[in-house]
Amino acid sequence: MLNGRSTALQAIAGHNLKGMLAVVTGSGGIGRQAALALAAAGAEVVLGGRRAADLRQAEAEIGAAVPGAIVEGLPLDLESPASVEHFAQAVLGRERPVSFLVANAGVAACPQSFNELGVERHFATNVLGHALLTALLVPALRAASAARIVCLTSSAHQFTPVVFDDISFRHRLYDRLIAYAQSKTGCVLLAVHLGSQLAQYGITVHAVHPGLVQTDIMRHLSDEDRLSIATMQAGIQPKTAAQGAATVIWAAVEPRLAGQPTRYLEDCSVAPLIDFPMGNDYGYGVMAHALDFEAAAQLWAWAEGTLSRDLNL
To answer: What is the domain partition of the chain in residue ranges?
Structure first.
C-alpha cells in the first residue's frame, strides 16, 4: 500500500511503459525523480528546464541509475511564450504520441517581476506557461491511448483564490508567498479545466501536492519567510524528492484513477475537501476555491486573452 513515505520507484513498480513518451517540466528535485521513475519503467523521457547544466546532470544521473534509459533534456523557460513554443515544437517534431505530461517546473517566493506580457512571474511560469504548453501538445496527447496529465500544486493554494481582477499585483501590496499561493491555486484550476475538456479524448488530468519537499525552488526564501513557513508546517514531516515524486507517479499510472474527473491528490491518495486553510494538524486537503469549474473556465479565458490566441483543446 502506497502512502506519504513511498518513493517514486515504489509507485511505478510493476508498470511497463516501454514504447511510451513522457514529457516532464523541471529537471531537478521532484521532476528529476519523476523522470527517473518513468524511465525505469521503460518510458522515453523528454525533460524541459531552464539551465543546460542541470539538464545534462539529470541526463547523466538518470542514465547511471537506469542503464539504457532514453532521456533528453531540452531548454524550456516557461516564463517565455516563445521558449514554450520552441520546446513544444521539438516534442511534436518527434511525431510520437505523448502518453504522459508532468507539469512540474515552477518558481517560488520570488521578488516581484513580470514576464514580457506583463504577467507576474509566479503566475507566468507556474500557470500560464503550462497552459500554453499543454494546449500545444494536445494533438500528441490525443494521439496516445489514455494519456495522463499531472499538474503539480501545493497546499499553499489554501491561502488564496486567484484574484482575477489583479493577478499580477498591480493594485495591491505584493507578497511573494501569496503570489506563490495564488499560482498554486491556478495550477489546480488549470487541471480542473483541462480535465473537463479533455476527458472526451480519454485523457485523464489530476493535480498533485507532493508534500513538504526542500528543493531548489525555495532558494528565494528569506530567513523570515522560512521561519514563518516552518511555524505553519511544524506538524508536517518533510519528504525527499523521491518521496515527493511518488504521488506524481501514482497519478500518472494508477489504473483506478484512469477516466476519473480531476482529483487533488496527496500522499498517494485523494485529498479531503477542507473549509479553511491548514484545517487539520498536517495541512492536508483541498479548498473548494481551487476546484471551482467557473473559476477554471475563467482562468483559461484569461490565458487566451493574455496570450492573444485561442488555446484550442
So the answer is: 8-307
Are β-strands 44-49 and 100-103 bridged in parallel, bridged antiparallel, or unpaired?
unpaired
What is the value of pTM for the model shown? 0.94
Residue 97 CB partners (closer than 8 Å, separation 6+): 20, 21, 140, 141, 143, 144, 145, 147
Mean pLDDT of 280-290: 82
In this prediction, residue 224 carries a pLDDT of 60
Active-site annotation holds for 180 = yes
Rounded distance between C-alpha atoms, residue 120 and residue 81, angstroms: 14
Task: Return all residues near 84 (Cβ < 8 A) that are at least 6 apart.
Answer: 76, 77, 78, 129, 132, 133, 136
Query: What's the average model confidence in pLDDT over 74-100?
Result: 99
Question: What is the predicted pLDDT for the residue at 215?
Answer: 59
Strand 273-274 vs strand 286-287: parallel, antiparallel, or unpaired? parallel
45 close to 125: Cβ distance less than 8 angstroms: no
Number of H helices, E strands in the chain: 10, 10
Distance CA 157, CA 160 (A): 6
What residue has cell string 501536492? 209
- Torsion sign, CA atoms 216, 36, 92, 210: negative
Mean pLDDT taken over the chain:
94
- Regarding the domain delimited by 8-307, which CATH topology (the fold level of the hierarchy) does it fall under? Rossmann fold (3.40.50)
Phi, psi of 49 (to 5 degrees): -160, 165
Catalytic member of 174, 180, 264, 284: 180
Q: Taking a C-beta distance cutoff of 8 angstroms, is the pair 186, 202 a contact? A: no
Written as nine digits, the cell of 170 is: 498591480
Q: Which of 109, 205, 219, 206 is nearest to 156 (CA)?
A: 109
Question: Cell numbers of 104, please?
Answer: 512540474
